[in-house]
Design a protein that fits this description.
The complex is a heterodimer of chains A (409) and B (518).
Chain A (H helix, E strand, L loop, with lengths): L7 E5 L9 E7 L5 E7 L2 H18 L5 E7 L4 H15 L26 E6 L16 E5 L9 H14 L6 E5 L5 H9 L6 E4 L5 H18 L6 E6 L2 H5 L1 H5 L7 E4 L1 H8 L8 H17 L2 E6 L6 H14 L3 E4 L3 H10 L3 H19 L5 E3 L2 E3 L1 H16 L7 H4 L3
Parallel strand pairs in A: 3-4, 5-6, 5-12, 6-7, 7-8, 8-9, 9-10, 10-11, 11-12
Antiparallel strand pairs in A: 1-2, 2-4, 13-14
Helix pairs in contact in A: 1-2, 2-3, 10-11, 12-13
Chain B lengths: L4 E3 L5 E3 L1 E2 L2 E2 L33 E2 L2 H7 L7 E4 L10 H10 L5 E5 L9 H6 L3 E4 L5 H8 L7 E3 L2 H9 L7 E6 L1 E2 L5 E2 L14 H6 L2 E6 L19 E4 L6 H4 L10 H17 L7 E3 L4 H17 L3 E8 L1 H8 L3 E9 L2 H9 L3 E3 L2 H4 L14 E3 L4 E3 L4 E2 L15 H4 L5 E4 L3 E2 L2 E2 L1 E2 L14 E4 L2 E4 L4 H7 L9 H12 L7 E10 L5 E8 L2
Parallel strand pairs in B: 5-14, 6-7, 6-10, 7-8, 9-28, 10-13, 13-14, 15-16, 15-19, 16-17, 17-18, 19-22, 20-25, 22-26
Antiparallel strand pairs in B: 1-2, 3-4, 11-12, 20-21, 23-24, 26-27, 28-29
Helix pairs in contact in B: 8-9
Classes of the chains: A alpha/beta (409), B alpha/beta (518).
């Protein structure tokens, strides 16, 4: 946070566009206690509770005299609290944090090999997009502190993201945060690691060393705060150097579970333009897939930015899948379903997987060490892949859970 | 002046007298039977009308004066010109200039363009409004500034009140996109075309005096005659009755909000899984963004299954017209056209019929179209744990919307309210609705982005949905969830003063709106 303290602090957003947000201005005064001027769309229903929250929070930070202005556009308590805290911290120096309850629904952990087909980016300083994001069932939700947050808003975004991690129900999506580029991004970790984040995205990653730096910082915080749950990492490769070092990055830590590519910055780094055909990024994408597979982790594709063209998205997903990617990013909830449906195995793939998995169970029943299909021997990685295909087909509803009962080989 | 309040059948305290007239408190569904005979206007004689059929009068003022406009009269208008209406405000401007006082404005609906009416409420020209009070008018009324008590009725309730003689229309001033000099009028032609004039039917049949105001005088005979000239007293030609782009939205649009689309998808899914959607079903939904999306998804299901809807009841839109034209809907019965495609269709498609609410919605009638509908998609500002619904006030107590056809439509075989669980921190599922406009017995399903609640009275639906994988919750669970996210709202404070009354479809008083404490 900023060290040059001011007498008046302000945070948040105002105006019609800033639905579910509020703007807070706090001026420290010499005497007169706390005076609050509240303008709220929901004043008749929540005016009292907003004022109570504000008073409690100021008392918490030891502020006895201040004049506060709140312009509220239906912000939920986690937003109001974050805005007040951000404004306060421009006026006083404090290490205290005003933490709201961590809701029980958010205390889950994720596993290393769970699906990461879709990850939905949410700008870290825009509360209205956070509240319902989980309902659209992405595999992961990213609260973004990097490119989608204006430089002047970085500090308040950290508090908002922290509060969102505690209070917004993610409905089972993997809880992800994209921090800023290393080294600046290391400071972001203080605001998210203690609040049950499942995965950290590391943007513009170029070396294995950067992964180590992030890991060290995470374990330092984890030790201090007694955190034992796993926190996974997804580096994003966005430069020529990153592409060259892809394997080093992918294998830098046990906690790196996926390797993603960001094509906008990558093509800019090459000094070229993104085209529909994507020939300019073909090498990089193949390199990412290869490095990820070599390291035994998931290769993840970039985002598709035309949110209105679902047909084009479908084609991009099919291509991505054919190159070997396991997932991609999305910037609009409507993209999620298209991504899931098209990363899912097709009928031919499902049929083949069924045969392999059935052969695998037969071999086990017969006590054989080798799985064979007809005259062909099936290697363990192929069996594993087939099992994964079956799982995914069941998950998207293309295959019944009890398919083996009905399956006649 | 203290008026006796009694508790009605839904537990609301309502008066037995409003604006000096006796009223009947709501007795419960199906409990009130009307008696007596229908109201009738005085018998006219052709002796008093020009034999050449030319009823043209130079201007509206003259027509009003000739209609004997005087203090305390009830003036009716229709809302087919929607937010582009240029006629209603003019009537009261003229009345105000003539020094007439204490009129009752009886529109079939009001729009933001009627904000100017406040001036005439303030200067005493208008005593009160019986109709919908939207936006600024609603706020004005909620602040207790209207001289009399406002009365809100459904579209069908309005027809019922006219027919039963509860409201006697002294002068009906009916804007018409086309008319001949005899007064045969319709909404299909002219610069202010609005498609149909269904809401004007009760007015011209029952009013003492009928004035047609048109900007498109055509030669006799003007067919089809949605308003029949032999009920018309005077015809006035003015330059402009409406602003076309505000009468009809050029094109209605499906919502782009991912959250609303999610609700729409869930709703279509529900319709399919529950079996409510079937080959030959009757359906109705509105022109709001979510409703249109539901229509779109439903259309896809019908196509996928090779099914047809036997009929759709409009408000028609281009989406309904698409269904009609690709054969997934066999007929459209239409009370109002919402976009240009709908206006085109009604003139071109022989299975797209005008169908006045007069014939569809009146509860004091020999049957109701609404009870024949299989699928009814409606909205609400609030619903409570007893499934009661509110469409007229917001949770902060302000009157902001009319009832429209909402109460009438509740009588469908399955009434579904697809609504968000909360809007901008305001929970939509509440312990108790601020204003009770529709009793919970008639509301079957609430579909929110966070779960579906089925009215426990509908055991059949509960049974069908049980194993569908749809997120079924109790209405109490939904309410708790909303409060968990938004916080528990504080109680809004009201004063004792009653500013408006809500009529049920049978003319009884189901609830009142009180002045908001400011």
């Amino acid at each position: 946070m900023e060290d040059n303290l001011k007498n008046i602090g302000s945070a948040g957003n105002e105006g019609k566009e800033a639905r579910s947000d509020c703007y807070v201005e706090i001026e420290l005064t010499e005497s007169g206690g706390i005076s609050i001027e509240l303008q709220s769309k929901v004043e008749k229903l929540f005016g009292n509770s907003i004022i109570k929250l504000c008073k409690n929070e100021l008392t918490f930070f030891g502020i006895d005299n201040a004049s506060v202005k709140i312009e509220d556009n239906g912000a939920l308590p986690f937003v109001i609290a974050a805005r007040i805290e951000a404004a306060v911290k421009q006026c006083i120096k404090t290490d205290k944090e005003y933490l709201l309850e961590m809701i029980p629904e958010n205390q889950y952990h994720t596993s290393k090999d769970r699906y990461r087909r879709s990850r939905l980016y949410l700008p870290g300083n825009t509360p209205k997009l956070m509240i319902n994001a989980g309902l659209h069932k992405p595999d992961g939700i990213i609260l973004d502190l990097e490119d989608s947050v204006a430089p002047a808003k970085k500090d308040e975004a950290k508090l908002l993201v922290r509060n969102a991690l505690r209070q917004v129900n993610f409905y089972g999506a993997e809880r992800m945060v994209r921090i800023n580029q290393i080294p600046k991004g290391l400071d972001d970790l203080d605001y998210v690691i203690p609040h049950n984040v499942n995965l950290i995205l590391i943007p513009k990653c170029e070396t294995g060393k950067q992964i180590k730096q992030v890991e060290e910082k995470i374990s330092k915080i984890s030790n201090e705060k007694n955190i034992s749950c796993p926190i996974y990492l997804m580096p994003i490769i966005e430069s020529a150097l990153g592409v060259i070092n892809a394997y080093e990055i992918a294998s830098a830590s046990e906690n790196v579970v996926s390797l993603a590519i960001g094509l906008e910055d990558y093509t800019a780094d090459l000094g070229t333009q993104r085209t529909k055909e994507g020939r300019e990024t073909f090498f990089a994408r193949c390199q990412i897939v290869n490095a990820a597979c070599a390291a035994g982790i998931q290769p993840i594709d970039s985002v598709f930015s035309d949110v209105s063209d679902m047909e084009a998205l479908k084609n991009v997903v099919l291509e991505s899948k054919s190159l070997g990617f396991d997932g991609m990013g999305c910037i609009h909830p409507r993209q999620i379903k298209v991504i899931h449906e098209n990363f899912a195995p097709n009928d031919k793939e499902i049929e083949k997987a069924k045969k392999i998995v059935t052969a695998f169970y037969k071999a086990i029943e017969k006590g054989l060490g080798v799985v064979s299909l007809g005259s062909k021997m099936i290697d363990p990685p192929v069996v594993k892949r087939a099992q994964r295909t079956i799982e995914m087909a069941v998950e998207v509803g293309k295959l019944s859970k009890n398919w083996r009962e009905e399956y006649v080989n | 002046m203290s008026i006796k309040l009694v508790k009605n059948a839904v537990g609301r305290m309502v008066p037995t007298e409003i604006n000096g007239k006796k009223v009947i408190p709501f007795k419960g569904l199906g409990k009130h039977r009307p008696s007596g005979r229908k109201y009738a206007p005085p018998i006219p004689s052709a002796l008093d009308y020009p034999t050449d059929g030319n009823k043209l009068i130079p201007d509206l003022k003259t027509a009003l004066v000739k209609s004997c406009l005087k203090d305390g009269m009830t003036i009716s208008t229709h809302h087919h010109l929607r937010n582009g209406d240029l006629v209603a405000n003019q009537i009261f401007k003229i009345a105000s200039e003539l020094g007439v006082k204490d009129l009752v404005w009886f529109p079939s609906a009001s729009f933001p363009c009627n904000e100017q009416i406040i001036e005439y409420l303030e200067n005493g020209t208008i005593h009160h409004i019986e109709g919908s009070m939207n936006g600024a008018l609603g706020r004005f009324c909620s602040q207790g500034k209207m001289k009399g008590v406002g009365i809100l009725r459904s579209h069908g309730g309005r027809v019922q009140a006219i027919q039963d003689g509860e409201v006697k229309i002294d002068i009906a001033v009916l804007a018409a996109p086309s008319s001949d000099t005899f007064g045969n009028a319709n909404g299909q032609k002219g610069p202010s075309a609005c498609g149909v004039l269904g809401y004007a039917k009760s007015d011209y049949l029952y009013a003492d005096k009928v004035i047609i105001v048109t900007d498109n005088l055509v030669e006799f005979p003007n067919m089809p005659m949605e308003i029949e000239g032999n009920y018309v007293d005077y015809v006035v030609k003015i330059d402009k009755i409406g602003i076309p782009e505000k009468i009809i939205s050029g094109t209605t649009q499906i919502t782009k909000s991912p959250d609303r689309l999610l609700i729409a998808e869930m709703t279509a899914n529900f319709l399919e899984v529950s079996g409510i959607l079937y080959d030959g079903c009757y359906m109705q939904s509105g022109a709001g963004g979510t409703s249109l999306a539901i229509g779109y998804y439903t259309h896809q299901i019908l196509k996928k299954r090779g099914w047809k809807s036997r009929l759709g009841f409009g408000g028609s839109t281009k989406y309904m017209v698409q269904m009609l034209e690709d054969g997934t809907m066999e007929n459209i019965l239409d009370a109002q056209a919402f976009d240009l495609e709908a206006v085109r269709s009604i003139t071109e498609n022989r299975n797209h019929f005008p169908y006045p609410v007069f014939n569809a919605y009146n509860f004091h009638s020999k049957g109701n179209l609404t009870s024949m509908m299989d699928i009814m998609i409606l909205g609400a500002t609030e619903v409570d744990v007893n499934f009661n619904g509110n469409v007229v006030t917001h949770s902060d107590g302000y009157l902001l919307h009319g009832i429209g056809g909402w109460q009438n439509c509740l009588h469908a075989k399955c009434t579904i309210l697809p609504i968000p669980l909360f809007r901008n921190r305001i929970p939509v599922v509440r312990e108790e609705v601020t204003t009770l406009v529709g009793p919970g017995e008639l509301i079957d399903v609430i579909i929110t982005e966070r779960g579906i609640a089925i009215n426990p009275r509908r055991k059949d639906l509960l049974e069908k949905i049980k194993n569908s994988g749809l997120p079924l919750k109790t209405i109490h669970e939904l309410k708790e969830e909303a409060e968990k996210i938004c916080g528990k709202p504080q109680k809004v404070e009201f004063e004792d003063k009653i500013v408006a009354a809500i009529k049920w479809v049978d003319g009884t008083v189901i609830d009142v709106v009180r002045k908001v404490k400011e």
